[in-house]
Amino acid sequence: MPFLEIHGLSANIDGKEILNNLELNVDRGEVHAIMGPNGSGKSTLANVIMGHPKYTVTSGNVLVSGQDILGLSTDERAKKGIFLGFQYPTEISGVGYSHFLRNAYNILNKSLGSQQKDREVFLTVREFHEYLKKNLGDVGLDPAFLGRYLNEGFSGGEKKRSEVMQMLVLKPMIAILDEPDSGLDIDAVKAVAEAINQLINTGAAIVVITHYARILRYLAKLDNIHVMAKGRILKSGGRELAEELEEKGYGWLGLEDAD
Asked: pLDDT (tens digit, 9 = 90+) per residue, 24-33?
């Protein structure tokens, strides 16, 4: 049984259908990439899995370990170990970066501790601070970030590095990354890819949403690439599919390059 199963998923916003009978299965330790034209429903899929309230699911199921999560609130889904790395992370003034991560870490560990034997259930404040500094270094962020508010004043690249750093700290069971490479220079892309590679080693199920093949070239493992259009997956393949899409665009598949 796949760890993450999506069957016949359809969803809309304000009556406009965006997802259309979508099917996707991702098992533990697998890395799947989703590519497709703008407006194809990639970000909608990520938000629907996470339970964004502006989307209405009209049919289908999203199963984690065989349990349908569509009836759960967003925080309950997060406690199941689902992580969403945002395409546009929000600045939250007044919420300390380190304090936010420690609370999230403790809540998730309490929920998942029995399911992941290598997960530290408790760290002292000093141990956690050292743990954070190590993960900051892994994605190329300065330890001074720990004294700032969440995403406040971060550049676009710093926000993306911060998202994957949070992923490394929390060690989710399922990680969905919405365009983690957009707007990044090559060094930042490599740092983000290396963070994903570290999570691969934990056995998590990983979904990377991207427009470009370049980040996929740095992933140590890539099981499937899916082309999404008109709210569903129309074609799947290996690494060569991403290179073909980057070279030819989507026209050869009978798809539009834009909305």
From this structure: 999 999 999 9
Please name which of 226, 220, 208 lies closest in space to residue 160, comparing C-alpha atoms.
Answer: 208
pLDDT of residue 114: 54
Distance CA 105, CA 108 (A): 5
- What topology is assigned to 4-253 in CATH? Rossmann fold (3.40.50)
Q: Specify the pLDDT at position 257.
A: 46
CA distance 41 to 55: 12
Give the neighbor-by-neighbor strand order of the sheet with 224-229.
82-85, 174-178, 205-209, 31-35, 224-229, 232-237
79-114 per-position pLDDT tens digit:
999 999 998 888 999 999 999 999 999 888 888 865
The Cα–Cα gap between 226 and 212 comes to 13
Q: Provide long-range contacts, Cβ within 8 A and 24+ apart, for 185-191.
A: 185/157, 186/214, 187/140, 188/140, 188/157, 188/160, 188/161, 189/214, 189/215, 189/218, 190/218, 191/138, 191/139, 191/140, 191/161, 191/164
pTM of the model: 0.92
